[in-house]
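#random but structural
TW: two for the price of one
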Amino acid sequence: MNVGICKLKIYIPGSQSLKDKRSILKSLMARLQKQFNISIAEVGDHDLWRITTIGIACVSNHNYRLDEVIDAVINTINRDFPNVEIIEKEVDFYG
């Protein structure tokens, strides 16, 4: 069993409040979880309006599949969510 984890720091320039941030983040996380069958959660920067950190985890028999899924998640964020910008990315594989 192999596990891939990814930590993304995201900038949300249009957010004017924590409520705005949560709305955008909730939509993003629900879509990614459903589309890619991953575990995803906000893991940092809870009190900032325009910055958040999310954690993503997935499990597979092969590291190449984990890499494909994580790359697809990042590409989907960049393509389908123009109101957010990934400013940091950290990926690790275990297993």
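TW: number two ↓
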Amino acid sequence: MRRRDGFTLIELTVVVAIAGIVVAFGALTFSGYFQRSAARRAAQVFAQDLVVARSYAVRAQEPVILRVFEGTLWYQIVTRNSATEVVRRRFTGSSAEIDLSSLALDVSGDTLVFNSRGQIDMSGAGSALGTAAFSAGEITYEVQFNSLGASKVEES
């Protein structure tokens, strides 16, 4: 009679192969989750920044400008008269809070101006709603907003 003191090489190879397949599927699932999470978070931050820009314009009684730099994936909110920077968000590079692959504002000039009463001039939008799109990989979230900065975030 022969006594077995361990596992055979074939048994170990099968177990390692199965574990590798499970880890690969898990990595694919999480990569999609991280892309979706990054795009959604960027869209939600932008929606909150619209509220910040509007409230700052009303409180300071001066126009506030939201400028989007699509090519370099960042935007800033500044006051028109005093040039005070209210918010600056970067979505790529070493100082980025959120890593995106694209950012697009569907308004002519890529600029929104809140007047001192907190309203956006939507004449450059082509419709009653403006749109900003945030993409991370294959996932895109859109922020639709009106002239008062009220917004809705949806996956597109």
